[in-house]
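Closing statement on the zinc ion sub-project.
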Amino acid sequence: MDTAMEATTGGRGAGSRQPPGLKRRLRRLEEAVKTILANIGEDPGRPGLAQTPERVARMYLELFSGLGSDPAEQLTVLEEEGAGDLVIVRDIPLYSMCEHHLIPFIGRAHVAYLPDQGRITGLSKIARLVEGYARRPQVQERLTRQLADAIEARLAPRGVAVVVEAEHLCMVMRGVRAHGSRVVTVAVRGLFASDPAEREQVIAQLRS
Ligand SMILES: Nc1nc2c(ncn2[C@@H]2O[C@H](COP(=O)(O)OP(=O)(O)OP(=O)(O)O)[C@@H](O)[C@H]2O)c(=O)[nH]1
Ligand SMILES: [Zn+2]
């Protein structure tokens, strides 16, 4: 985690220089990509691949930029007197990386929460939360749970429900080659966990 922290905390201020750790990590990633290319039977020296290790190194830091920060901190708490009705944000795009194979799983997240005492969050913040947890090596169940836990911890709502629907390229491009299969995961907290009728209703709304 220490090295991940370097990448995400470095270079934030205007004109600030990259921390030395970041350059070293990029160089090591480039070396690793060259090693992969050589060992799959490619020639890392051929012109078409000349920039590839550097490009892939930068891409990996982007794809895994959710490491080393706490996405829950992005959930600002707004006090809106009287806000107590269900809030649903559906179809949030999701691009994450399966931690078993390091290839993408792609889908949508749907989030609902029932505010308590007028505590709500900015709507964009929920999409930011999804991005923060998605940009790291993941499994879908943990991602789903982390989204529900973050909203519960920050907003202390009466209930939270999260549904994630995704296609795992590790199940499609390789292995079992289950084309068209979709994985659906659900996490519920508060009222949606304790009351089966409420749970059923909110999940139906999220999946409709
Ligand atoms: N529960 C869960 N499993 C996942 C997720 N992403 C990938 N997997 C599974 O992780 C498992 C890894 O199993 P292994 O047997 O170690 O790896 P493998 O030989 O490549 O497995 P196959 O994919 O069956 O060929 C596979 O069953 C994947 O389908 C995820 O988000 N959640
Ligand atoms: Zn996988």
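The chain has eight helices and seven strands. With this model delivered, the sub-project is considered complete and its resources will be redirected to Aim 3.
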